[in-house]
């Protein structure tokens, strides 16, 4: 499949898996409700000057919100994995596995973001500021591309060490092709722009309908992006 075919297939995938879209939306709503409840509990505790209420509501709310966010991340990793497998199935909720995978994804993202930052600090102590910034930008771009592949490797094997194996991930990046990834990003950016331009225009006519459509479009496009990335990685 070339990049255009991948985009076409990815645009269709969410429409054939509406239940998966609904599950994701429900999870996001639950996460939002937990955060709102937590803030409400903290406000109530501070108003009543009750340290116990404030502490319990804050800790429990934050823990639950983190768990749900990991669940959502793990769920989207399954969308990515199904793309790699060229499967048209919908991801299903597998609570413990998806929460653990979400935690793994968080670790991967942190590692691939921290390393360039550390390298920039080191470079800034060695080279002139302008050169350190230039090298830092180049390193950050490289790590950003490798991170895309690392997430695919994690989705495919669910093995944290596979995702953190920078050398193997870099080899996969060469196999997939930086040019192909850039093409995918550019085309997806155009699709995203057009979709949000339409929902924004509708929002000018009716703010409520526009907001709902924008939220639905955001979820739809997220599925498209994950599906397309998985298909590209599998080539």
Structure description:
The chain is mainly α. 88% of the residues lie in helices and 0% in strands. The chain has helices at residues 3-12, 18-48, 51-84, 95-126, 129-157, 160-164, 166-176, 178-205, 207-233. Helix 4 runs antiparallel to helix 5. The chain is globular. The relative contact order is 0.13.
N-to-C series of helices and strands: HHHHHHHHH
* Rg: 20 Å
Question: What's the multimeric state?
Answer: single chain
- Number of H/I helices: 9
Using DSSP, what is the number of strands? 0
Question: pLDDT under 50 segments (min length 5)?
Answer: none
Overall structural class, as computed from helix and strand content, comes to mainly alpha
Inertia-based shape: globular
Overall average pLDDT:
88
Helical content band: over 70%
């Amino acid at each position: 499949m070339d990049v255009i075919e991948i985009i076409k297939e990815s645009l269709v995938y969410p429409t054939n898996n509406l239940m998966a879209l609904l599950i994701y939306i429900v999870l996001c709503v639950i996460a939002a409700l937990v955060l709102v409840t937590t803030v409400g509990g903290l406000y109530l505790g501070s108003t009543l000057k009750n340290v116990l209420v404030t502490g319990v509501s804050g800790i429990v709310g934050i823990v639950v919100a983190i768990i749900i966010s990991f669940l959502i991340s793990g769920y989207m990793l399954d969308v990515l994995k199904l793309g790699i497998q060229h499967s048209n199935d919908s991801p299903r909720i597998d609570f413990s596995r998806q929460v653990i995978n979400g935690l793994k994804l968080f670790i991967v993202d942190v590692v691939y973001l921290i390393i360039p930052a550390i390298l920039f600090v080191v470079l800034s102590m060695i080279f002139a500021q302008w050169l350190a910034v230039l090298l830092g930008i180049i390193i950050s771009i490289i790590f950003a591309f490798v991170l895309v592949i690392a997430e695919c490797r994690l989705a495919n094997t669910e093995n944290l060490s596979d995702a953190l194996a920078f050398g193997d991930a870099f080899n996969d990046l060469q196999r997939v092709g930086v040019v192909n990834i850039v093409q995918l990003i550019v085309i997806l950016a155009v699709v995203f722009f057009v979709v949000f331009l339409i929902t924004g225009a509708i929002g000018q006519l009716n703010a409520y309908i526009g907001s709902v459509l924008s939220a639905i479009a955001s979820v739809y496009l997220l599925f498209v992006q994950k599906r397309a990335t998985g298909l590209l990685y599998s080539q």
